[in-house]
Each structure stands twice: as structure tokens, then as C-alpha cells.
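Re: that chain you flagged

S.,

Sorry for the slow reply, it's been a week of failed gels. I finally had a moment to sit down with the sequence you sent. For the record, here it is as I used it:
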Amino acid sequence: MSPSRTPSPGLMSSSRVRQFVVYARKERKFYILVSAALLLSGFAYPYPQVAMWLGFMFAGYSAVANDSIQTIGTFIASNSERKWYWLWLYIGLIFVAAILTSWFLYNGDVSFQRLASKGLEQTPTSFAYLQLAAPVVLLVLTRLKIPVSTTFMLLTSFSGSLATVEGMLSKSMSGYFIAFFSSLAIWFLLARPIERLQRGKAHQAWLIGQWLTSGFLWYLWIAQDAANIAVYLPRQLNVWEVSAFILFIFLGLGILFKLKGDKIQSIVNEKSNVQDVRAATLIDLAYALILFWFTQVNTIPMSTTWVFIGLLAGREIGMKTAGFRKGPVKLKKTFKLIGKDIIYVSIGLAVSIILAVSVNRTIQQELWAAVMSWFN
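Prediction finished late last night. Pasting the C-alpha cells below so you have them in one place:
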């Protein structure tokens, strides 16, 4: 038997070059649009009235596209055989109802008072280039299938207080661990009943339940994360402004459903059994209950991405370890998936903090004061 040969570094580098060339050709149109968006941001940021609406449009699509995996991702996966426009109309109309509810209840505020938090309550009167570029960077990360936190990526650069960023980080981390241990306990302790529940063909009632839980979850996501989109705009919108807000996001949702969630949808699809309507319903219900609890805690914005990643991680481990009675449990692949997700959201957090410090003089001063206090 001939000994196995290890590919030479030259062959490996040549293969990577070919892969990059293929990728560049495939994504050429996308990166041309990205370049145009970055260039347009450079022209627009000195003009606040133009910059706020351009930033909103960039943030609107990029935030919904990136966060689609955690709200409508399982909905798309488990309804892949259905016409995309029915899914779009259902989710789109819930969005319209949610935004109008906040607009009426909170005197023109479409963020469910998330932007009333200290440090975010003032309408931006000027913009930095990086504040407009941030959602474009988010769009690139989404294209690369990296589930970053839109809350940190978009809100931190507008925060007028380091304490607000710390509060967002603390609430998001607690959300990750609460979601992780809750889902771990649920899918470990109830693994057998859930497994029996998912045998055979799903009853029609499961489809109705899944649409209802997905709609409830989507509403709660809007209540938490509409602030990430509205942060560029006045804190109270008039009737024309709220109409433009709703119309743009509604049409953007249509594009997203037409693309079946786009490339980042694979983050959901690679998890165990999410295409089954019963599994999708249970995931959405657990996630919705956790988000509902956090909406009652306070109005500080939080990363719903971290909560969702924690939920899926706990579910994967719970499902795998629940089978220990049947034989050895193999968790290598599971931990690899979880580790990859954690690395990606950590990358997003690091980029967000760099952006916030780069464009926000108040945070720079507070951070410098905090550093100097360590030496005094």
C-alpha cells in the first residue's frame, strides 16, 4: 500500500486562490452594491436629513436579514414547500400591526420605548461615516453567514453613555445563559415525550400552532429590535415618516422571503430536525416565552441574537445527551457548531465595540476615565 501523501503548501494555496476567484465571481454583483453603498455613505453623512434616511434603509434590510434566522428562520425552514408570498403577507402584516401599535401607544415612538433608555433618547443631529457604514458591514457579515448581534452593531455607536452599553451587554449575556440552560433542561428532561410527539406525519393543528407561535415570536422581536432600525430616525415619527418606515421594511421582508432567508438561513437549517413543523413550533414557543419575560424586565435594548444562539445550543446538547441510555454520546460535532456560533457573535461584538469607540466621543472619554482610574 502506498503511503498517503500530504498536499504540498503550494497546492493548498493554489486551491484557496481558485476558491476565492470562484467566490468573487459568484458574489460580484453583491460586492459592487456594497461598494456603492459605502461610497454613498461617504457622500451622505455630512447631511443629517439625508443621512438619517439612508442609514435607516441600510439598517432596515441588514438588521431584518441578519436576525431572520432567530425569528422567521424556523418558520421559513418548516414551510419551505409553501408559496413565499403567503408567508411574507402573514409576517409583513404582523410587522405593520406591531409598529402601528407602538406608534399609537407611545406618541410616535416605533421602538416600544427601547430608544427612551438613557443615552439613546436623543434624535441624532449629526452622523459619522462609520454610523452609516455599520449596517453595510452588517450586510456583508450576513452574506458570510455570520450571525452577529444587530443590537450591538447598530445601537452602540449612537449610545451617549458607556453605562447603556454595559447594560445592553449584561442583559444580553444573561439572556444567552437563561436561554441555554432553559432549553438544555427542556430538551433533556422531555426528550422522550418530544421524540414520540414528532413521530409520523404532523397533525394539521401543528401547522396552525406553528404559525401562531411564529407570529407571536415575530411580534416580540419587533418589540425588542425595532430600535436597531429606528435609531437613525427622529424619536417621534409623523404619519408620513411612519408610513415610509413601514413600507420600506414591508417590501424588504418580501425580498427576504423570496430569497428563502438568503444565505444565513443555513445557520438554522444545519441544526437538528428544524424542518419538522413540530420541532419548529417548540423552538419558537420556548424562544418567545424567554423574549416575553425580558420585555417585562426593563426597556434597555438587548441582543436577541445571543438569546437565540443560546437556545439552539442548549437544545442541541439536550437532545444529544438525552440519548446517553442508548449508548455513547458523541458531542464533538455539536460542540463544533456551538463554538462556531459563539465565535461569530463574539466577532460581531468586537467589531461593534470598535465602531462605538471610534465614532462616539462620550464613550471614548468615559472609557479613558475608566482606564485611568485603574492606575490611580
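What I noticed first: The chain has a mean pLDDT of 79.

Talk soon,
D.
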